[in-house]
Design brief:
Length: about 140
């Protein structure tokens, strides 16, 4: 199970990398179209950038928030030898929900749908941490 629980981790890394590349492409396109000036990149002041540029940039930032708690949880699960099918399923669900969140965020950007997916991903992550705490301390 130790190897299986790493598959969602690789999925999260891949998702973050894809968003980074998309963000770079959208920023370069906006700069070429003179929607934002090159000097804006000195301080990352994207004021005046189009919604796609801003949403993709925000989504990239999001990949270093709750997903970091996910990555730490997997490290603890591996360190304690607790990896099992339950954790693999929850970890996979978390990453799939993060993928859904990203698709909505950089696509239609339907705020209600995006927020609901975000909350669901948080609930899965909290379940991972609660189960881990239970196994460690009870």
């Amino acid at each position: 199970m130790e190897k299986l629980i790493l598959l969602p981790v690789f999925g999260q890394v891949l998702l973050t990398s894809i968003v980074m590349i998309l963000m770079g492409n959208r920023r370069i396109k906006a700069a070429k179209n003179k929607e934002i000036s090159l000097s804006a990149f000195k301080t990352m002041n994207l004021t005046g950038a189009n919604e796609q540029v801003i949403a993709t940039s925000r989504n990239f930032d999001n990949q270093f928030q709750m997903p970091m708690l996910f990555l730490f949880s997997v490290l603890f699960i591996l360190q304690t030898n607790f990896a099992d099918l339950g954790y693999v399923v929850m970890a996979s669900a978390f990453v799939l929900l993060r993928l859904g969140h990203t698709i909505v965020h950089i696509g239609s950007n339907n705020v209600r749908l995006r927020f609901n997916i975000f909350l669901l991903s948080c609930a899965v992550l909290w379940a991972i941490w609660l189960r881990l705490a239970w196994q460690l301390f009870v």
